Amino acid sequence: MHAPLYLPSQIPVNIVLLFILYYPLDDSASTGLSKNTVDRNFDDLSEKFARKVYGGLKGDIRLAIIWRDLLAVLPDLETQAPLRILDIGGGLGQLTVALAKLGHQVVYNDLSRQMLEAAQNLAQEAEVLDQISWYQQPYQTLKSENLGQFDLVMSHALIEWLAEPGLLIADVQNYLAPKGLLSLTFYNQNALVYRNLIRGNFNVLQGEFSAHPKSLTPGEPLQPDAVQQWVEQAGLTTDYSAGIRVFHDYVTTQRGGHEDASAVIDMELRYSVQEPFKWLGRYIHFVCSVAR
Q1: What is the pLDDT of residue 41?
Q2: Which of 132, 156, 169, 191 could be cross-linked to 185 through a Cys-Cys bond (beta carbons 3.0 to 4.6 Å apart)?
Q3: Residues 6+ apart with CB under 8 A from 65
Q4: CATH of region 14-290
Q5: Could you give the CA distance from residue 149 to residue 270 in angstroms, rounded to a whole number?
Q6: Mean pLDDT to the nearest integer, 224-248
Q7: pTM for this structure?
């Protein structure tokens, strides 16, 4: 057995993890309730999102891990016959466009007009604009579009922005073909706690968490166990899990390998699937299938 990794205060990381898991900020996520009163529309944050996340290494890490994970569960994704794919909360459209370029039949959905236009611009540059079906509307209204079933449904970093996060997975399950897969990422409450512990923001941990309305930190960070309950309640099973940005966001002073972006991505890929590190990812990625 490996010796535990020690923080500067000499507290073993496994003890910190136990603290986080047993003493979350609050238990709203376990009930399906949310502090979000409406589903968040990113029209006013789209430029900030593009700049702060996908304008640097954060976005590169996120895309690298999600793509690696998709290839792990769909090893022929880059060569097989076209799949039907639904991207709910598709954001800036990087994955939508990448999959369309491979010849897959992709349906894009987002609540935000600004996000959809940015995704369409990316698709235009890649010459796949007309190969993608575009829906700018609440995901809940897609059921009226008679879209049918899909081999892959993606919903990345959406659930934590919803007024009723506990309903998303059950709603999405209806779009899955019998052997279809759900790729779901969500903002990890454990990571929020751990980051504030490291940075000495103890006051944030003393009461109910509240994110600034203009922040990219969602108001509803989620416990992995709560999300797993929603997965099971929807009749799905989690086949694969990984952490996204398991150390990058905790670094306050860059040194050594931190200065090499490719090395950071390599280390993130390595530790994103290892215990206990993956559960410290800023986001968690679940790939789920219909329970047999």
Answers
A1: 59
A2: 156
A3: 242, 243, 244, 268, 269, 272, 285
A4: 3.40.50.150
A5: 33
A6: 97
A7: 0.83
Per the document, the length of the chain is 292
Residue 19 pLDDT level (bands cut at 50, 70, 90): very low
Give every strand in the sheet of 283-290, ordered side by side: 132-136, 105-110, 84-88, 150-156, 176-187, 283-290, 236-244
155 touches 184 (CB < 8 A):
yes
Angstrom distance (rounded) from CA 184 to CA 172? 10
Residue in this structure with the two tokens 């490719």, named with its chain if needed: 262
Q: Which residues of 178-205 are buried (b: 16+ CB within 10 A; e: fewer)?
A: eebbbbbbbbbbbbbbbbbbbeeeeebe
Specify which residues 35 forms β-bridges with. Answer: none
User: What digits encode the pLDDT tens for the residues 90-108?
Assistant: 999 999 999 999 999 999 9
What are the structural domain ranges in the chain?
14-290
pLDDT score at 16:
45
Q: Which of 15-19, 29-33, 104-108 tops mean pLDDT? A: 104-108
